[in-house]
């Protein structure tokens, strides 16, 4: 059946190692072949696999922690022996010690009711921490066993598996949802089997609401940009054309905050009466991304008050850290997008607060 994943043209069936048409296109042409699993398919596949696992490696993206450690994933790993692999630390702004990141994570994990057997801070890009994962597997499973690797799409799950094997074992794809079924590999010189599961697409991520080319711009891969703003009442701050927010804090106490996102997402401040025209005329120009489809979504308006030392996180996009608060805002964003308020991940620099403003 041409219309379902795994379709193999008849003349290929007798080949020694037949590859389905979809995988052939992804591998040879880097083509995007959108076949996503439904939530129910995903849950069934992963729940079945997890039943027989000794350890579950949960890969999360430190830059989009809320967008990658989502409620469904948490419900799947409760009561499991978990190694939490926190990836992409090469992207963390400023110099942050891994111990500081672990401390911050422990607070987040406590809130989620998860106590992992171990946490590894890593970057599959720089290879930092990848050997640590192998060491932990040897420690927990001296005689071998079964290990599942699970995580949201785009967190670096395939890159970790390739890092564990030291070669291109699975297809690292810039497109979410490449792996549809669990694939099993034996870790060399061990009796340990690694099961690579399909990636879940969590709810509420802005990066999943745009086309593939905008997705590549929004998901940070090289560096995070940050900029500090001091905006009075009624001024507007925009994350490109993706999300915008109007300041509601009193005029006398202009709040100060720093915005963080992938470097292709342009920060912009403007007056409230200019927003509509900007979104209409400039999107696709200096307010890129997103593309036109994004605006056909239903939008919502929400009001928040964020205290100093707190952050407002836009799942799958970025965050703002409040340096001088409280920051009261009216946020305009797509209806399906989710916002989370959390303790600051990147602590504000109290002393140089004013100098940092640009
Ligand atoms: P998967 O969907 O979870 O299997 O993720 P992939 O391994 O395919 O990676 C998704 C994207 O994130 C790719 O563009 C990778 O190059 C990038 N990526 C993966 N790990 C890292 C990392 O440690 N640091 C950075 N900066 N990018 C990474």
Question: Can you tell me about this structure?
Answer:
Helices cover 24% and strands 27% of the residues. The protein is built from ten helices and 16 strands. It has helices at residues 21-29, 39-51, 65-68, 71-77, 98-112, 130-140, 157-165, 212-218, 275-281, 353-356, and strands at residues 55-61, 82-87, 118-121, 145-151, 183-186, 192-196, 224-230, 235-239, 243-247, 256-262, 267-271, 299-306, 310-314, 318-324, 327-334, 339-343. The strands form three sheets. It has a six-stranded mixed beta sheet, sandwiched between helices. Strands 7-10-14-13-16 form a five-stranded antiparallel beta sheet, with no helix packed on it. The longest helix is centred in the first third of the chain and has 15 residues, at 98-112. The radius of gyration is 22 Å and the shape is globular. Bound molecules: guanosine-5'-diphosphate.
Write the layout of secondary structure elements.
Elements: H1 21-29, H2 39-51, E1 55-61, H3 65-68, H4 71-77, E2 82-87, H5 98-112, E3 118-121, H6 130-140, E4 145-151, H7 157-165, E5 183-186, E6 192-196, H8 212-218, E7 224-230, E8 235-239, E9 243-247, E10 256-262, E11 267-271, H9 275-281, E12 299-306, E13 310-314, E14 318-324, E15 327-334, E16 339-343, H10 353-356
Parallel strand pairs: 1-2, 1-4, 2-3, 4-6
Antiparallel strand pairs: 5-6, 7-10, 8-9, 8-11, 9-15, 10-14, 12-15, 13-14, 13-16
Bound molecules: guanosine-5'-diphosphate (GDP).
């Amino acid at each position: 059946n041409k219309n379902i994943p795994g379709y193999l043209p008849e003349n290929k069936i007798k080949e020694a190692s037949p590859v389905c048409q979809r995988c052939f296109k992804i591998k040879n042409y880097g083509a995007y072949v959108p076949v996503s699993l439904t939530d129910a398919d995903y849950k069934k596949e992963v729940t079945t696999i997890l039943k027989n696992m000794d350890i579950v490696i949960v890969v999360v993206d430190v830059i989009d922690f809320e967008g990658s450690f989502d409620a469904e994933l948490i419900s799947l790993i409760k009561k499991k022996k978990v190694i939490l692999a926190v990836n992409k630390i090469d992207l963390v702004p400023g110099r942050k010690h891994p111990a500081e990141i672990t401390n911050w994570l422990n607070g987040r994990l406590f809130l989620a009711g998860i106590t992992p057997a171990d946490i590894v801070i890593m970057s599959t890009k720089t290879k930092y921490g990848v050997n640590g994962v192998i060491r932990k597997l040897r420690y927990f499973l001296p005689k071998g066993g079964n290990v599942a690797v699970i995580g949201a799409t785009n967190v670096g799950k395939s890159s970790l598996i390739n890092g564990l094997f030291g070669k291109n074992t699975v297809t690292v794809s810039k497109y979410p949802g490449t792996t549809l079924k669990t694939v099993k590999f034996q870790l060399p010189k061990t009796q340990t089997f690694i099961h690579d599961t399909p990636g879940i697409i969590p709810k509420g991520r802005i990066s999943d609401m745009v086309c593939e080319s905008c997705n590549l711009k929004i998901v940070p891969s090289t560096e995070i940009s940050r900029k500090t703003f001091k905006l009075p009442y009624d001024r507007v701050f925009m994350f490109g054309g993706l999300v915008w927010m109007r300041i509601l804090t009193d005029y006398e106490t202009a709040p100060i905050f720093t915005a963080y996102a992938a470097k292709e997402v342009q920060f912009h401040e403007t007056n409230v009466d200019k927003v509509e025209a900007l979104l209409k005329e400039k999107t696709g120009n200096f307010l890129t991304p997103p593309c036109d489809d994004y605006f056909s979504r239903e939008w919502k308006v929400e009001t928040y008050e964020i205290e100093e030392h707190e952050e407002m996180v836009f799942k799958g996009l970025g965050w703002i850290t409040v340096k001088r608060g409280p920051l009261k805002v009216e946020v305009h964003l797509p209806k399906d997008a989710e916002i989370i308020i959390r303790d600051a991940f990147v602590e504000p620099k109290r002393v140089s607060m004013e100098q940092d403003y640009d």
